[in-house]
Design brief:
alpha+beta, Elongation Factor Tu (Ef-tu), domain 3, about 500 residues, 9 helices, 7-stranded mixed sheet
Amino acid sequence: MINHKKVWIKFVSVCMLLLCACCMTPKRPPMIGNDDQTYGIVEGLFQHRWWNYYERGQSFTDGALTYYLEAPADLAKAMHYLKIAEADFTDAISLRRTDQFRARTYGMHFLDYFPHRERGIVYYYMAEIFRRQKKADAAKEQITKARHEIEISLYGKKLRSFLQNNVAPNYSSRTEKAIVYLQKIQALQAQLYHPDKAFDFYVWQCPKVSSEKKAQISIWHIHPRHMTYLDEILIQGRIQHHTNIDRIEITINDQSMVAPITGKDVHFFKMVKHLSQGKNEIQVTCIDTNNRSFQKKVLVERKAMDFSTYNHQLRLKIKPLEKQTNPLLANLEQKISQCMQEKQRFKVLSKDSTPAECMLSGRTNLQKNSLELAVELIETETSHVMVTVDAYIENMNQYPDKMLSSITKNIHARLADAYPILSGNIVGIDKKRMIARVKYHHQVRDRMKVLLCDKFADNGGCVTSSPCFGRIEKIKEDIYVRCERLISSGVLITR
């Protein structure tokens, strides 16, 4: 007589064994780079979790770059370990797909997790190796994959899906490292497809997607009236035309750049490195084959980071940075504090002083010849993350002191730019909150802390007997202010 219970137990056991066998990842032993360092290792036990694969993939990428960057280059070994790194990032993505800051691993442990970006970087270096080996077709295949991976990291999905719906892509997890490599990928792609041409900026035909019949220019991520403290800005967007385009011009403060193009639907990309102090007029012009043109303008005001006359800064304390074990980074926290004290955008308090309104928390990621620094401004009372910014530099090993100074200035500038000083007026009262009108309202953040006065003096002081400290509530495009008392008219300034 057949024992059905035993049969089912054996059947389930065999299925589980087969499933485990299918899911097991081949062992990837550590490697010794030509700098005698060990790569392909992780902190703690390797438990086949997404963060294990991610950390090991980054480590293998570092090892591959020791063979690629250091002379004499060993392209075969570099390619071998890039393929291993690609497999690790692919395994990580299969377990957790989304790129993000501070992804929770377990308990109260977090990790900045960007597997699509890192896999895109792997494909970029594969394309570079194929280019050096004169394998143009293979290089083109890898550079296309690299661009798609960086797009997924930045926007959450490939750019094509946004173009199909005729909408501008929104950043889901913008990082400066992704932007740097997007520029490298655009440059290599232009070199592979147009080796005989030099480009001031990059223009590509959009995939065959449904397009608007009317001629239009879309400039992404820049408001028509935009303010920044940074000296650089990324100009990219889309041009759709009902006839063939002959060329595109980008003009910045009367300095023009031209790129020839053939097509009716194109995507343009330009990183402007040196914005002038004050107002910068940026104009994108499309000229068709009949020599007819149309254009779109945006006005970018670059403000000086001079906060010496401002007396109402947010008070913050700087927490010790995470992942700061390398001796090269021993003074990084001190450099950040010194830079912030010099620039005076925020009031940095000592660890033993009075309670701070905010905490600055950060972490570093030192890889082969590069450093990534991410920081968060956290409200002390509620633990709300007010803003997250990051900075990225290369050539870290060659010029460590210079690069550390550069990244501290960069992170401060991006923090000030993400949490800017903005002024406005109180124009009315709505129940228990005030209605505000703020210049550059699109850069106002929800829960921003503000100071309200009757008016401000020329030196930035508050002309009132009882200034009021409050915070902003932003609902879509409407801006409200909550404070301990209500005023029907007055001025406000973000802190």
